């Protein structure tokens, strides 16, 4: 229990560095969607950041995970591992950035900003900065310095908030429009270079004949897995024109993309919790991999993770009326998708936990095949459901994709590295919570105050049931402290 409590503590601190910045960043949503950008314009932002997500995976080439794996090994030369990981990232990101800058005009045309290739320049420079500081951020996690990690992330978002307000409210030029979002991001992220100046000045490139090939072989399946995973995550938001009927036209595609993008903004509340947990859990899993009791430990960690995420699913899923306050009326219709997107991210989080087996056994190629299967489900699911249901079909396809990935990963993991996950208990928690969300949302109450009161009582009732079900575990945990 002490190790789980330490993991929970680290997760809370990393949450400070991911959830708090995103919560601050959430304040940009009313600014962007209520007073400045239309749903079509916000569709451009969503499309471009979808492309960024794909390229970021290639830029990093799986080296964050490789760094944790090799830096956590007994008697590892952590400085050499750090320098080798940084070298790999720069060998990929610098030439790729140059290539994108050369072809910035075709990229701009694809992203509906043919008259603004300078937006592509700003975005590419932002991705390059992110690549340069990615391994230093990973080093902070490996060294368990979550407060420094959180400080840098929060400062970044505060700068972005200030710049967005200045550009969009004080010094706004309609000719630039959505470009201000990308410019603010570039300026804010460039401050990371100042934060890591001591680390970057001490860094020297290294290509070690023994270490570097091992890291590359370990990392490239992780990168392929990330790319396939990003298809699952971003394809509906960047390839909507592939799935909608031709009659929708460019305006219809951008509108659907914008509405779906805002719905994903709310779904990201679950994604942030998953991300905060991953920041703490990835080095935790590697550091305890050799422990003979690690299977039971990992199963228990996942159980508590599921309960926590179910609580978040319930709290966010029954407060959709409050979420309307953060966005414009033209985006309201997408809020019905939020519970499904929260569920999709919950399943993805459980998949990350279950996938620990192929990371600690160096069988990362399994992750590639599993995620490719998920990508196929995403593409086929969207191609089948979106023409019939519109962008709503994308949310259903996301749930199906992550469920398939989770099942495949669990079944293969039980053959190669069995871990006694509480499958039935965890499944019942997820199904029961989702059902309770839809039960509470089924009735329309005459006022927001009454709706809040009823839903609050529903949340308390859920908590009481969980407490009763987990009472023996809690009693054992309390007894272990005495």
Which structural traits does this protein have?
mainly alpha, 482 residues
Name the structural class.
mainly alpha
Q: Can you tell me the overall shape?
A: globular
Task: Provide the helix percentage.
Answer: over 70%
Quaternary structure: single chain
| Gyration radius, rounded | 22 Å
Average the pLDDT over all residues and give the rounded result.
84
Give the percentage of residues in beta strands: under 5%
| Number of structurally distinct domains | 1
Q: What is the overall number of helices?
A: 22
Helix/strand order: HHHHHHHHHHHHHHHHHHHHHH
Compute the separation of the termini in Å: 12 Å
Largest sheet: none
Low-confidence stretches: none
Number of strands: 0
Characterization of the model:
The protein has 482 residues and is an all-alpha fold. It has one domain (2-442). 82% of the residues lie in helices and 0% in strands. The protein is built from 22 helices and no strands. It has helices spanning 2-26, 28-34, 39-60, 63-71, 78-102, 104-110, 117-142, 146-170, 179-195, 197-202, 211-238, 240-243, 249-287, 294-317, 320-323, 338-354, 356-360, 365-389, 392-416, 423-442, 448-469, 471-481. Helix 14 (294-317) packs antiparallel against helix 21. It is globular.
């Amino acid at each position: 229990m002490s190790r789980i409590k330490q993991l929970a503590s680290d997760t809370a601190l990393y949450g400070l560095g991911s959830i708090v910045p995103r919560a601050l960043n959430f304040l940009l949503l009313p600014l962007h969607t209520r007073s400045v950008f239309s749903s079509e314009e916000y569709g451009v932002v969503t499309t471009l950041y979808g492309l960024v997500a794909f390229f970021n995976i290639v830029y990093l080439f799986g080296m964050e995970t490789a760094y944790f794996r090799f830096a956590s090994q007994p008697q590892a030369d952590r400085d050499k591992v750090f320098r080798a990981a940084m070298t790999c990232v720069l060998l990929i990101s610098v030439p790729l950035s140059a290539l994108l800058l050369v072809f910035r005009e075709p990229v701009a045309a694809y992203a509906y900003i043919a008259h603004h290739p300078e937006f592509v320049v700003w975005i590419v420079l932002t991705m390059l900065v992110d690549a340069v500081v990615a391994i230093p951020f990973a080093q902070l996690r490996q060294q368990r310095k979550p407060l420094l990690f959180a400080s840098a992330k929060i400062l970044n978002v505060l700068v972005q908030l200030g710049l967005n307000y200045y550009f969009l409210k004080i010094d706004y030029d309609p000719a630039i429009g959505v470009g201000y979002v990308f410019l603010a991001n570039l300026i804010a992220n460039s401050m990371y270079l100042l934060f890591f100046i001591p680390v970057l000045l001490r860094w020297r490139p290294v290509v070690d004949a023994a270490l570097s090939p091992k890291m590359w072989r370990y990392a490239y399946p992780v990168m392929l897995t990330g790319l396939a995973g990003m298809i699952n995550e971003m394809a509906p938001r960047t390839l909507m024109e592939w799935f909608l009927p031709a009659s929708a036209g460019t305006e219809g595609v951008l509108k659907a993309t914008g509405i779906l993008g805002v719905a994903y903004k709310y779904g990201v509340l679950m994604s942030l919790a998953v991300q905060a947990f991953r920041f703490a859990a990835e080095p935790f899993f590697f550091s305890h991999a050799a422990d003979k009791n690690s299977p039971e430990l990992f199963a228990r960690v996942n159980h508590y993770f599921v309960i926590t995420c179910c609580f978040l699913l319930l709290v966010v899923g029954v407060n959709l009326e409050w979420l309307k306050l953060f966005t414009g009326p033209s985006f309201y219709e997408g809020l019905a998708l939020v519970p499904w997107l929260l569920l999709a991210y919950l399943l993805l989080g459980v998949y990350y936990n279950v996938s620990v087996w192929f990371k600690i056994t160096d069988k990362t190629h399994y992750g590639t095949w599993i995620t490719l299967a998920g990508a196929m489900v995403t593409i086929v699911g969207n191609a089948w459901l979106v023409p019939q249901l519109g962008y709503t079909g994308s949310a259903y396809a996301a749930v199906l994709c992550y469920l398939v990935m989770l099942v495949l990963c669990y079944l293969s993991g039980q053959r190669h590295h069995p871990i006694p996950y509480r499958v039935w208990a965890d499944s019942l928690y997820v199904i029961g919570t989702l059902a309770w969300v839809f039960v509470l949302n089924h009735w329309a109450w005459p006022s927001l105050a009454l709706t809040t009161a009823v839903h609050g009582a529903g949340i308390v009732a859920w908590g009481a049931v969980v407490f009763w079900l987990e009472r023996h575990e809690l009693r054992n945990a309390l007894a272990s402290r005495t």
